[in-house]
Amino acid sequence: MAYRKDQGRYARMVAFWTITLLVAYGCLGGGVIMLNRSLSVEFNLTLVEQFPLFGTLKVSTMIALAVLAVCAFITHRVLNRPKAADLLIDTEAEMRKVTWPSPSETWTGTLAVMLTVAVLFVFLTLADYFFSESVSRLMGVR
To answer: 0.85 cut: is pTM over it?
Structure first.
């Protein structure tokens, strides 16, 4: 049974799937490759030749899927503990209070940042050139 089941639903769902997909990427991406290299040929048997999504189903793939299932279960349990659930519930409540900018405000802000970065780039480049030339002449390098 989930703690305060009806509250913070979206925040919990996003947190769960983000963590689970990151673990899946690790398990099914690099984890299977590492297991294929480290398991002996006798132990890493091919269980099914034609298997959807994986091509062939081997013992190494089954181990990676088991680790993924255990991590997903642990993630679900941790996210439904009172402290974590309260944090996610409060986060979702605060996100509903945020005033999001309109697309035109976002574009205006983006242009302002880009212009500021360009001006600072030019200023710092010229200042660097000026000071390096000044120090070079004072030191007698040129």
So the answer is: no
